[in-house]
From TrEMBL:
It comes from Bradyrhizobium lablabi. One of its GO terms (molecular function) is catalytic activity. This is DUF2848 domain-containing protein. SUPFAM superfamilies: FAH (SSF56529).
Amino acid sequence: MFDLTFTIDGQDTTVPLTLPIDHAVIAGWTGRDPVARDKHIAELEAIGIARPASTPIYYRVSARRLTTEDSIEVCGSESSGEVEFVLIGWQGRIFVGVGSDHTDRKVETYSVTVSKQMCDKPIASVLWEYEDVAPHWDQMILRSHAWIDGARVLYQEGTLDAMLPVEELIHRGFGGKGFPDGYAMFGGTFAAIGGIRPASRFEFELEDPVLKRSLRHAYDVIVLPVLG
């Protein structure tokens, strides 16, 4: 069991809560629009990454890869982040967060599963109750900025109506049994504006335009040398 402490933002109040996370899942190719989904698949194929065995697909990674720290260390310069919403199950409740599925792109060319395990997965330290945002889920916005060659650029942006609904994502991933306690699941991402590329710093957010609030996090990418 791995514990992470968050702040639960309930609009009127905020409370700290330590959540036990036993399992982490990275859901991939979760787009509702097959054209947009295939665009992201083609984007990855362009850098040598094979098509997935199914869509969506659910990769397992160590829960200890999750972190709320503001920096991560990676081997070599061929990794990059992806903004995604995150679901966490606890005592029958579902919390919503935002994270980055930071992935080693070189390793991804020969094994997506292994590549997902190579890098830490930063997530914001504030969560929302899913029931508070479910009525306007499709209107929420995922967005990321990347620092590339000293400049901050818009890297990804899109609304959640482009992703599979939460209920369908859970149903497909867990056999219709509901979202289990102790699981954290990343929900998929958008194609990168200008193509996938590494960055020295990655900033990401989930914006709720209805309740006028956002979940945000950012982290520096520290590159370790690959000597052989």
